[in-house]
Amino acid sequence: QLQLVESGGGLVQPGGSLRISCAASGISFRAYLMGWYRQAPGKQRESVAIITAGGGRNYADSVKGRFTISRDNAKNTVYLQMNSLKPGDTAVYYCNAVLGPAMYWGQGTQVTVSS
């Protein structure tokens, strides 16, 4: 069983930056496909960024050039660096881990972009 705990969310002004983290406990972290998703009030959960076990990355069009996903397998942690934040980025951000048929979610961390 893999457990995921997000941290680092908060309130930031438009144009600001924030880095959120997801710490995983359990074995075989390095084998997992890791991702960040977000859900804004009244909207469906959407994919933001994913990183494969081999380090390949994919981003939603809305965050390309502004967000960067990375992973540190030695620390069992995946990060999302968010720059040039916009009010439209306000959402609860969830960490996701996938390995074969197994999928795990964190509890989410709130990111609010507002002046």
What series of H and E elements makes up the topology? EEEEEEEEEEE
The oligomeric state of the chains shown is single chain
Major sheet: size, sense and barrel closure?
7 strands, mixed
Approximate shape? globular
Structural class call reads: mainly beta
Helicity, in percent?
A: under 10%
Give the strand tally. 11
What would you say this structure looks like, in words?
- The radius of gyration is 13 Å and the shape is globular.
- The model has no long low-confidence stretch (mean pLDDT 96).
- It has no helices and eleven strands.
- With 115 residues, it is mainly β.
- Helices cover 0% and strands 54% of the residues.
- Strand 4 (33-39) and strand 5 (46-51) form a beta hairpin.
- It has strands spanning 3-7, 10-12, 18-25, 33-39, 46-51, 57-59, 67-72, 77-82, 91-99, 102-105, 109-113.
- The strands form two sheets. Strands 2, 4, 5, 6, 9, 10 and 11 form a seven-stranded mixed sheet that branches. Strands 1-3-8-7 form a four-stranded antiparallel sheet, with no helix packed on it.
